Amino acid sequence: MKEERLSFAEVIRINRKGLKLIYSLIPWNRFWDIMMAVSNLLFSYWNYFFISRLVDHISVGAAGETLLYDVIFLVGGQIFVHITERYIMYYYMYCGSNVWELANARLNCKIMEMDYEYTESENIYNRKRDIDTIARYGGAGLNRLYWNVAHAMRITLQICVALGYTLYLIYQGRKAFAGRGGEYILFFVVFVGLLAGLVVLTIYVGKKSNKARLYLDEQMVPYNRQYIFYTEEYINREECGKNIRIFHQQNLLSKHINELFNNMYRLVDRSLDVNEKESTVTGVTEVLISGLIYFMLGILVLRNAITIGNVCLYAGCISMFLQHFRDAIKVLTLLYDNTKYVKTYFDFLEIPNRKYEGTLPIEKRTDDKYTIEFCDVTFRYPGSDVDVLKHFSIRFRIGERLALVGKNSSGKTTFIKLLCRLYDPTEGVILLNGIDIRKYDYKEYLSLFSVVFQDFKIPAFALGENVAASMDYDEEKVKVSLEKVGLSYLWDRMPNKLETPLYKDFDDKGVDISGGEAQKIAIARALYHDTPFVILDEPTAALDPLAEYEIYSRFDELVGTKTAVYISHRLSSCQFCDDILVIDGGQAVQRGNHEELLSDKEGLYYLLWNTQAQHYKEEEYNSISPCNS
Ligand code: ADP
What is the mean pLDDT of residues 332-355? Predict the structure, then answer.
């Protein structure tokens, strides 16, 4: 993370905004923070106050009954405050510990709702992961803001009371030096000088240790990221287990992890070293200063300015003041330095959506007669200077099938991304029923499409939830969709039918499914949604050409009268389509049915068909060749 200098006004603004968010996430936090501050104050001063009374009563030889009352108040009050404080602490900790989880949930929502183009940038996921990592493992950001503001509230209250007593003590000093103004001034100067000395030392050491802490936080980010990758995203993933064994990666991973731990230990060691030095210096100084303060209080007692009991009270107050002042400096510098992490959180949350959000409702049609037209569309990905689609124009014939074929990287998936408005064209326009798709309400527009992408994912949710992409689903409809893709046996095999979780990631009772079954579930999901447009974007790329052809042509029977778009780099998979569009280098170069396209011996389709046919023949030959047996 780059060092960014924030003005004081910005620091205040960002932290206020952070607090506002925290208190809106858990409104009870504010109440428990105040309760904690009050109970802490009571707990600290109850002791000093009643011990001071007791000592005074003893020193003047008060009656046993008075002493008994003093003890009852001292002990009884302490027990009461202690119990209440535990109770308050429970709620305080409970509310506080949820702050980051709730704040993080907002980041997750943001990732799901931001313009899709951001999610294809690696940078976005790294940014999100860094914010989460530094909050979770380093405690920085909103978490640190919350705990430290709550702490600051407690400290402020304590400091105010301690300062009041300390000032009163200085005032009392006048009595001890009645008639000797010069001595009083000396007393006052030494006293204030001692306090000021400690304050300066505290600021200096506090700043140093905070710097070290921040340095540790920042340096830890890449290491934590690596650690999460090795453990959560690699070693513990079923699909990586195969690679680990086949390529004997155990040693490689162990060495990388050991190296990582060594780097982490070195960092922690350096930071602990600074902290140790800090506590030694402040500890010794505090003892020395306390000694001097006791000495000065002794002078006041000898000169009858305060009672012996007051020594306990004032000594306690002064040491409280010093200790809390040191804490206050720590908290303030921590909060100041923490501001940049709070800012990073809000910067992420406020990434603006660039896509124009239209409001026009989609015309509801029972006949599914929607026309889509790409008019001279040119597109290049953000940050790239290569046109992936060039002056691309096409009109869909409604209710029919369109196949998009072409070599890898010719722009087929990009066409689908534009069709679903995951991106907007750089030039040109896409029309739905003659109207620019940007003008439509985006959610409504998206509900026209079901797409099975090449990199589809089936999460570890229940089977029914996966098909419906929702917790509430129509069981019959789910079953029909599964039946259509030939998976009716699946729910019979499952202990809790449609409610059975897939895979064992979150539940031991989960059922593992094969890659082929996952593919079919993804297709069933597209069928369940019953949208006017269904698109298959090579979800079958891992299958052999014959299996892909079977799935594509079977799917074609299933979609009935809907408009279907099929994408493949294998021409054989789409030959059943009456309307085949050949894309090359981001341009539509040929269109027609299989026979028409094949009859053009100069065309790309003819060339690709023959090259691929030759390749498949070779594959077939190799698979039956005796050399392979
Ligand atoms: P196809 O589906 O025909 O294989 P794509 O539409 O996926 O091709 O990709 C077309 C070109 O666009 C490729 O050169 C690919 O590298 C590039 N491309 C795809 N996605 C992105 C992206 N998010 N950012 C930059 N370039 C991309």
Answer: 90
